[in-house]
Amino acid sequence: MIEGSNMAECHPVGFRWVMKAKERGATIIHVDPRFTRTSAVADIHVPIRAGTDIAFLGGIVNYILTRDRYFHEYVVNYTNAPAIISEEFKDTEDFDGLFGGWDGEKGAYNRSTWMYEGVDPEAASGSREGPSGPVQKQPIQAAQNDRTLQHPRCVFQLLKRHFSRYTPEMVENVCGIPADLFLKVAETMCRNSGRERTSAFCYAVGWTQHSIGVQYIRTAAIIQLLLGNMGRPGGSIMALRGHASIQGSTDIPTLYNLLPGYLPMPKAKHDKDFDTYVRLNESPSGWWGEFRKYAVSLMKAYYGDKATKENGWCFDRMPMLTADHSHMNTVAAMADGDVKGYFVMGENPVVGSMNGPMQREGLRKLEWLVVRDLNLIETADFWRSAPEIERGEVKPEDIQTEVFFFPAAAHTEKDGSFTNTQRLLQWHHKAIPPPGDCQSELDFTYKLGLRLQELYADSTLERDKAIQDLTWTYPTEGPKNEIVAEAVLKEINGYTIADGQPVPGFTALKDDGSTVSGCWIYAGSYANGMNMTARRKPGSQQNAAAREWGWAWPADRRMLYNRASADPEGKPWSERKRYVWWDEDKKRWTGEDTPDFIVDRPPSYRPGPDARGKDTIAGMDPFIMQADGKGWLFAASGLEDGPFPTHYEPEESIVQNPLYGQQCNPSRMEWWRRDNPYHRAFADPRFPFMITTYRLTEHHTAGGMSRWLSWLSELQPEMFCEVSPELAALQGLKNGGWATIRTARAEIEARVLVSLRVRPIRIQGQVIHQIGLPYHWSSKGLVVGDSVNDLISFVGDPNVSIQESKALTAMIEAGRRSRHRTVVTSGPLVPAMDPQAWQRDLPAARHKPGSEHGFKAEESKESNA
Amino acid sequence: MGAKGFFTDTTICIGCKACEVACKQWNQLPDDGFALSGMSYDNTVALGASTWRHVAFIERPVPLSNQIADGFSWIFSSDVCKHCARAGCLESCPTGAIVRTEFDSVFVQSDICNGCGYCVVNCPFGVIDRREDDGRAWKCTLCYDRLKEDMTPACAKACPTASIQFGDLDELRQRAHQRVDHLHELGMNEAYLYGADKESQPGTEGLNAFFLLVDKPEVYNLPPDPVAPAKKVKESWISMGLAALGVAAVAFGAVLAAREGNGHG
Q: Strands A237-239, A201-203: parallel, antiparallel or unpaired by DSSP?
């Protein structure tokens, strides 16, 4: 099932294996608002109204539960279905779309009632992802279970009740998917799951880029747990990432709130010293009980000999979070003049990020901007090539931002590793040296660090020790003294300080300062001094797990949670699907892959009442990173917007939420600003159509790598919109002609493609027209066109701060835009509306504070002050 | 050297155009200009002097027989020079610039071509074309330079789904027939091979680059019954002779008639 992804177009190389699977008899289902190149080769195409996937997937959950199609033994033993939930928990069924615990003052949930009965509510994984809270005193493990799944407050019954109204008829009414087609898909999934068979989901940003995006993926996780498709060959949920190493940039993060290996970024308010930081983030149960070892080893990598137990491993040198510094918050602050400088590397935000006008407004208020790219992209040239400049609203000579543009090396011109979607690290070797002054990111950052250390060498200020004490010695090579990439891999892998020998894996890391590791989950990638990521034994010469190709984190496991491929006694569920099992003779877990389990812990092991850390993991608990070792149907912690997924409409929809009085995700992030106006919640007559945005095979995201290349530019030379023949007739659009698309933020023009690939959706007599818009073009390069992200507002998912660019409303009219096109920074395009009159939220949720999102905004203001 | 060629299985083509780009990059071909055609996702439109692989995008208001979709299908096909067993271009080339190689492919020697253009009108597929800037005729070389180094042609190498398969023709034909049988078993009865052998396409005596299609050739912009023009030479001479005789007879008749007219006049 490919949903929220256009895999054939956006991941054509990986799609090779989907086609191989199809040749071997797999059924490919593609759920998408449009008929794409993925749909073209799928067995079933399911057209869906953009932004309604939770209703569709929830319908499948309901189908599985009401028809008793779940994998009983798997669900009872490996998920938290039997866990009894607190009596205080209230579902969205009780409050018309709000869970219990809504705090109107904060505009956020108090999540304390979303918890197992008898367990202290503060969760380890929660405090890792959100602002640190009080210390969790006891493990999040269900105190009471009902293995018959009959208790009215067990997770299984709560789940059943939560999704009870997600019937095939409701799916048809919400998503526009005919009930018989929905039933066909649900039945296909169920029939292809169980002991002998498994089904997989593939998704991409079609699921994530919504104001409730995380919960889309949660719904798929619930389906896969109910059907027993996790941790088993041929199962799972595959997150298709957007670039060659986006997974790598999450593991060793470019994210503001994470340190390498998913350790949380320290928070100024809570993490007063190292011990507090560890105490707030380690978990008394499950694998995160090892937290201190990884944190100490990371500090040793940063500060080397300077980091000692006595000085708290130099923890006070670390930068700390004072607020939510995610992308949209930072850009909004930039537009308010609160940000001085900005590094842009491998990104083109004025084209690729939401609300382009506000992005450029932000850049205009900077003191300095550094852009590194292959080409002189729009972000580097915003001061002379932008809609505001074109229409004369902004004059280049008035912009004071100093722009530094550095030429970047291409991937063929540098050594390094890519980490792909299945956590597989693959080394790539430099084929040719970078031309001229072009430089790899690694070399640039290394030399920038050297210069900073030189600059601050004589400083006596305490704060500058952060730079002075940093370990920054690496070997260099070649005529340009380029940093040796493998030396960085060795540091990331980790080594014992005494002898400098690389550690074999993360279990060798210590909390006494005797080991270094730049990213604990990557420990083992340079085991025995060998670059494991450079292994290249073809798949045809080894078993299906192909473990001698590259290296996968953690511990070279090709499949996470693979303990679940065996039954509770440790035997494979079936011969056909055998993968990892317990070898009774050798008293060890064994199989095709590195077992994702404590290798000598027998299936019969049960923790005693005083067990702590990884000793709490029972011999039959496959999900070892969870505090209770179970797959969570009910997310007892870690999510801002509900323990169960709930269908909400996008921020801007043409449909009133058919399921609840609450229209949108109440916890979503909003930015009420002059330069970020929203439409009415639904049925705004000025913006009667839906738009959805996407990529094409022929271009690379914001175009920096493709719009300057003739062979790619000729394949998709112009910005276009895709519309159905019905919408074309309604609005007088002609194939090959021009159309203007307008939101409250901006208007853009595009050539028109009229095609049956786009179909109107019918919901209870209402016809929903959807417009497709690829987002690759802008003002520079061989091929130019208007930029779609100018149309999109700042509105975000509360868990991960991602924007909503896959479903919003717009107007489309025939003809080109006015020569002096309008974007919102010159003032609202439409009269401002009173947000209180729009009824997006139930009265209880309507009084969200301030102009920004909840308490995060308040913290942000504190820090600015 | 055995005969080499392409088997293009259009049922697993995903329309990514990697073949077009790989071909242009390896052969360093210029772009065709930057203009939106308005014809689905096809903006290079046709094979030509600077486009030696071309992916057709066909939107059909009928579903494929083995697909559940709302009355629609979108099929892709990567077109290329067919390297015909009877090659119209080669047979018409007056300078000997077009030759058959040791791989049984049809190759234009650009240093001999004088740009006369006879080949252009003699190709039954409209493949070969003259480049406006230099006047000479260009087309797919089956990556002759790569084959000499025992490398796969750039397009087949780049194809992510193995829709374009390169190899020994005998083996490719066998594989193609198996593939058609397999598709028939799966209920895709419309699948068939285009130009796989002399018997099914006598006009070209078979193609060294043949295709698996699921609709009529015309849908893919391929001729239903391509014939190398030289194959018609004999018929042409006979009909020309008959025509000459006819003209002579008419002339003779006219003279007779005139004489008769004169006789009466």
A: parallel
On whether the CB atoms of residues A785 and A750 are closer than 8 A, the answer is yes
Residue in the structure block whose two tokens are 């956590």: A423
Half-sphere exposure of A519 (CA within 13 A, CB side): 22
Q: Look-up: residue for tokens 């809570």?
A: A270
Strand partners, A34: A758
Helices (DSSP H) in B31-153: which residue ranges? 88-92, 118-122, 144-148
Q: Which of A6, A18, A19, A780 has the highest number of chain B CBs within 10 A, making it the mutation to test binding with B? A: A19
Same domain for B87 and B205, yes or no, is yes
Same domain as B199, residue B236: no
Query: HEC string of A748-774?
Result: EEEEEEECCCECCEEECCEEECEEEEE
**Among B34, B40, B59, beta carbon nearest to A783:** B34
Mean pLDDT of A321-335: 92
Cα–Cα nearest to A580, from A628, A607, A545: A545
Q: What is the per-residue pLDDT for B43?
A: 97
Which residue ranges make up each domain of chain A? 2-239, 327-412, 562-622, 669-854
Of A107-121, A353-367, A523-537, A633-647, the range with the lowest mean pLDDT is A107-121
**Could you report the per-residue pLDDT of A426-436, keeping only the tens digit for each?**
999 999 999 99
Q: Which residues pair with A341 in a beta bridge?
A: A368
Is A736 in CB contact (< 8 Å) with chain B?
Answer: yes
pLDDT in tens, A37-55: 999 999 999 999 999 999 9
* φ, ψ of residue B170 in degrees (nearest 5): -60, -45
Q: Is B181 on the interface with A (CB under 8 A)?
A: no
Domain co-membership, B85 together with B105: yes
pLDDT tens, residue by residue, A232-247? 999 999 999 988 889 9
Contacts of A184 in chain B (CB under 8 A): 68
Fold of A669-854: Barwin-like endoglucanases (2.40.40)
Task: Give the total number of structural domains in chain B.
Answer: 2
Collapse the DSSP code of A459 into the 3-class scheme (helix H, G, I; strand E, B; otherwise coil) and give the result.
coil
- Chain B segment 53-92 residues within 8 A of A by beta carbon are 59, 61, 66-76
Is CATH 3.30.1490.20 correct for A2-239? no
